[in-house]
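# nightly structure sweep
# worker-07 picked up a monomer target from the shared queue
# config: single-sequence mode, recycle default, output format = structure tokens
# input follows
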Amino acid sequence: MKNIAIFASGTGSNATRIVEHFNNHPTINVALIISNKKTAKVLDMAKSNSIPTLLINRTSFYKTENLLTDLASHQIDFIALAGFLWLIPPYLVKHFPNKMVNIHPALLPKYGGKGMYGQYVHQAVRANNESISGITLHYVNEHYDEGNIIFQATCPVTTTDSVQDIAKNVLKLEHYYFPRILESLLAN
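# output follows
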């Protein structure tokens, strides 16, 4: 059995899709949900699915390596970042080389980096009159959105699409592809 930890900061719609996808999976298990916000809805979703949770604070996350002990206690093999907004510290990247992925709501390298998440990405896509947008799954390194790209999928952006329309279309791609790409990575 391979155990996944999901890091999320918000509502957890991608985390929910991952949990649903791997529910009763013969070889892959979502073993832990980690959040940096005690009010994150993703924690409620984890509780309702009987998945252990861990709330982390900034000081411990960046100034200690205590998180590695928590991950080891849950026998975590792989980490999926699903709307987690903090930069990952070097010790965690080093401990999970090519075993930690992030999903980004744009076609990297465009619209990536610090501060480029959620609506900010879609606003930039709209402001630049892009004709396509999409998602990128990439390995995590010590920099925002700069790890090696694993997978991208696109969706058209019409001249009449609002920021909300773009967000909705990109989210559909995220929900469809993220669990499936994780499964293919964990099968290898």
